[in-house]
Sequence to fold (519 residues):
Amino acid sequence: MKEVKSASTETGSNINLPEQGSVAEAIMFKKIQQRFPQQFEHVFPDKLAPRAVVIIPSLTMDPEILSKITGVNHYEERLLCMLMLLRMPRTHVIYVTSETIDPVIIDYYLHMLPGITGYHALRRLTLLSCHDSSSKPLIQKILERPRLVQRIRDFIPPDHEAHMSCFNVTEQERSLAVQLQIPIYGCDPDLYELGSKSNGRKIFRECDLPVAPGYEDLYTESDIISALVKLKESNPVLRKAVVKMNDGFSGDGNAIFNYKGSEQAGDLAPWIKENLRDKLKMVAPDLSYTMFLQKYQSMGGIVEEFLEGDHIESPSVQCRVTPMGKCEIISTHDQELGGESGQVYIGAHFPANPGYAVELAKMGKKVAEALKKKGVLGRFAVDFISVKEKQGWKHFPIEINLRKGGTTHPFLMLQFLTDGAYDEEQGLYYTSKGHLIRYYFCSDNLKSEKYIGLTPHDLIDIAMVNDLHFDGTSQEGVMFHLIGALSEYGKLGVVCIGSTPQRAREFYAKIVTVLEKEC
Fold:
């Protein structure tokens, strides 16, 4: 067996590490993970405990799907909200990215730290870069650089408990955890398939939740055609169906099939087979029909009804299973989906509609309990399609995102800034001051060609001059993210926190107005 040397373990001695991707490596990872509950129980609650957090914000997914996302490398900046962990004066943070982050962006986050000077925080912050702008997942770049792995290891203080925090956890993140000999606050990659679109439908049925009509565990073009035929035959008025890869991201693994014209067909199956290429609209730009089918065949997928109605929402519930086995509802959101297909994540309102936020939390908790029994650890989200009917709202869970997601970093930022918590029984968020309720609107997709050329320095100057910042006194205001994507792509992320939903939207409108004026 091929082995590499590790610099140290808990006892400080060298050990031999198993080959990457081997069964022996998976066994060693499970042993490392067994240490985590004790760390969680004793270190996490103590704000003065010496600890180190290694943040790996890698979007470890299919590289060709990721390459379709505008400014994908800058999505690694979304977890910069976790620099707020430095508000704990004995915490060290090691943050690894594909490319070097501009120091002005780091300063922007650090100036929000309550009770901590920038100098003190910087002494405990290590920023490491792969200096690699390719579209390969960050974790792959790290593992290809053993000297960088050694540097990460060397920057973990020997007397500090340490763990990794990742966007999602695959076999590659597991390999890095074994090389560093530290646990991950996330799901074992052996359970990764539980988050596929196909397995999501099965788990929802286990939980006795309503599932959109459809079919899972599909792989071939023939499978897709057969499912489309069955859906239309069981619901003759169906206008559209959605075809989803098992492991897509932000809707970019989806395609919409339109049945328009099938009414004149004598036999449905031949008509769908003949028209599939023309009638199947890919969500991801520049993803060809042939490439879509190749990806679909390799990872599998589902076909289900495209749910429609006079009033439809796309809420989500964020959950967490702690190392102690507790299931928590972290937040609820109403997502804004856009793009030509209405399948692309644009932004979200927090909390979700008060008319159904509490009900959604209960449904999310059922899924969390089911996943806990299967061994899941860490954060994940359950996405829904909610249709308003005469009798009230009907909620269809549509997928499980067994990872952090687009609603993770805005909520983390709110929580770090206000030190509050979401009350799942009321569907409201209360700050640490107890009586203050806060809302936000967030987006990863504020973009315009006019913004291209604005540097991070320009944005910070514009924000300061126009009073676009978070006010710790009123606990309202604006925080930016994806700042590094602005100059090249004209793309920016924002979190707008207000005392009412309307106030949060007013902050967003002000940002747009100011940027239009400044450009």
Notes: The chain has 17 helices and 22 strands.
